[in-house]
Amino acid sequence: MNDHSCCEVDNGVHLMAGLPPWMFYFGVAAILVISFAFYFKKESDGGDWRLDLSRLAPVNYLLSRRWLQFAVQVPILLLFLVVLYAGFFGDQRINIAPVLTWTIWWGLLVFVILLLGKFWCFACPWDMVASITSRLRFWRVNREPLTSGLKWPRQARNITLAIGLFIALTWLELGYKVTTSPYATAMMGLIMLLMVVLPAFVFEKKSFCRYGCLVGRISGLYANMAPVEVRARDRQVCLDCKTKDCYVGNDRGYACPTGLNLGTLKENTYCTMCTECFKSCPSDNVALNIRPFASDILHYPKPRTDEAVLAVILLALTAFHGLTMTPLWEDLTGTSPSLIAWLNGVFGLGPLFSFTVGMIAILAVPFLLYQGLSWLSARIAGSGISPWRVLVAFAYSLIPIALFYHLAHNAMHVAMEGQAILPLLSDPFGYGWNLFGTAGQTYAALLGDQTVWATQVLLVLTGHVIGIKVAARAGDRLFGRGGRAIWAQTPLLFAMILFSFGSLWIMHLDMNMRTSLM
Amino acid sequence: MTRIRLLSLVILILPGVVQAHHIRGIPHYSSQDHYPETPVYEVDQVVDGYDVTFTYYEIPGQMALDLAMYIRDTLPEPTPYEGPVNFLVWGRHEDPDQTHPFTAYRNATNVYKVGWVYEDAGAYYVRIVFSDDQGEHRAVFDLSVGESSRTWTYLGGSVALVVMAAAATGIIRKKRRRSPGTSS
Ligand code: SF4
Ligand code: SF4
């Protein structure tokens, strides 16, 4: 535990103090109480309402315009180009690229997903470039786009590629400290752009978005918590539809880029909210709904192994991400022992090797733990249910825990470091400009430390409550209720409590602020 | 590893590097006195009651920088720090423990200066350690060296890749149209 005040300069490195002890212990106690209160409470199925925004004339007008997505993507593309230019040609000590990318975009992205679902994919600049270069139109429909139209290889029709890329990019990002380097940030942006654009020439529709894009797949899982969805107004109309225009496309709209069938669509995971189906559907049967939070995750129709693995990895990687920013992981001042220094001492093979070993270990621990507890749960249930089936069914309950930990962590970055963007707006490339008179100024953090800590604890608790509800439903579906079934679920309840404790524990550690290193 | 070896070598010849200011005809400067050269960067940091000003100067035509620190207490009439200062410079993905430190002494204008030569362009950290009867004090600053000469290769290569992919797709499509019956 620490006794720093917020954002103290400790030996020249800015530290954000972690949660004060009383908040940490309060959080721990609340997690325990919540777990038992919610897990064994009989769930009511009420509150499953929808409000169709597309019935409002202005919304309907916009959704049916082909230029809508283009208009939203243009400013985002411009910002992306600013990041590339700043990263490649700006002053390398300090320019807007890292702050805009990692503090503002990455920091706020999770909030956008929570509130607006897959809005990022709708606004995605990489997708915009891929669309324009392969469709050879800005927004109109080209029935003969420049693509070989190959099907994504059958064996790869899962999200393993996205999971691999997520792990690889986290390794690059944290191992090479990309978040503090303008050049490396721009390089990652360029690589991401190529990864999205090149497959558009080879594969049909937006296959990369469906199977390979790490941002799309992570936001896809998280978007199941969001209060917005694109769905059929009346499923029966879709099921009776002979032409399936939304699936194959027509002169008014492209085929669904991720190959979804609105008649059977029940979750947000793969919908990019591109709005093509609003244009192509001849029966005006597509709705943009507002709905209760966490609707999909509570009623997840068909758990999949690859998604379950991503859920566990998401939890492990987000926690790892947080841990690497603490002096416990790496102490830049060299005054106290750190895990990296310890691993360096053990292996003596340099920091990157130590980092890699640490990352593998921290990824493996939650995974093995969860696997072990799933095995135990299956043993207790004893009804021929395989441990893997238990893992897959329950893994979705980790998504809210991962998402809300992610939100809590990013809330700290945005609130304590977000103001760093203000001076950079005046001098985005570090050329010594002062466009808006803010260059060289320092600004107070957007929120005080007490507010940030309270928000963080509240977010972790919210994630835990939702996770517990998801787990309770998964348990009911898999084991039924009462007697042995309750005992069978106990190991997984224990895992969730442990993971939420872990989230709080990481947040009670001091944090090296990224902007202090930019 | 090569870079670390190179850094050690540079440290061995450091007195020569520092001397080289005179050879280049640059007069003594303090961190506040930039004539005739402007530092690329100047930043202040208050550490344990000391005000540390860090500046650095590019050495034209070389992947080298002169690092300068001006350390004084934070009293209204500041007194410059006098003792030795330990410098350590390491790349963003390097291990600071595998880099050799260099001890610098105050010059006539109360500034601690060292020259450092770098193998790669990129972002680096400099950590200084100095002590008084209260104990050790440390400060970490960041700096960057050179511009990557590979930027245009990466950008040009990316554009070429996209153009080639588009051209190849166009050719495949044309061929397919000429020979109907082939399916994708
Ligand atoms: S899936 Fe990826 S590339 Fe596709 S739209 Fe979403 S973020 Fe962009
Ligand atoms: S076409 Fe419709 S269902 Fe398919 S991704 Fe776009 S918005 Fe979602």
Concise account of the structure shown:
Chain A is mainly alpha-helical.
Could you walk me through the main structural features you see in this protein, from its secondary elements to its overall organization?
The complex is a heterodimer of chains A (518) and B (184). Chain A is mainly α. Chain A folds into two domains: 21-41 and 303-509, no CATH class; 50-291, no CATH class. In chain A, 59% of the residues lie in helices and 4% in strands. Chain A is globular, with a radius of gyration of 24 Å. Chain B has helices at 2-12, 14-23, 151-178; strands spanning 41-47, 50-58, 64-73, 85-91, 102-104, 111-117, 122-132, 135-145. Chain B has two domains: 17-145, Immunoglobulin-like (Sandwich); 150-184. With 184 residues, chain B is α+β, with helices and mostly antiparallel strands. Chain B has three helices and eight strands. Chain B is rod-shaped and about 85 Å long. In chain B, the strands form two sheets. In chain B, strands 1-2-3-6 form a four-stranded antiparallel beta sheet. Chain B has a four-stranded antiparallel beta sheet with strand order 5-4-7-8, with no helix packed on it. Chain A binds chain B through residues 9, 11-13, 88-89, 91-93, 133-134, 146-151, 175-177, 180-181, 183, 187, 190, 193-194, 197-198, 201-202, 204, 332-335, 341, 344, 350-352, 517-518, and chain B through 1, 40-41, 45-47, 52, 92-98, 121-123, 125, 127, 136-144, 147-148, 151, 154-155, 158, 161-162, 165-166, 168-170, 172-173, 184. The structure holds iron/sulfur cluster (2 copies). The site of one iron/sulfur cluster has 12 residues of chain A, from α5, α6 and α10. One iron/sulfur cluster binds at residues 120-121, 124, 126-127, 196, 206, 209, 213, 215-216, 272 of chain A.
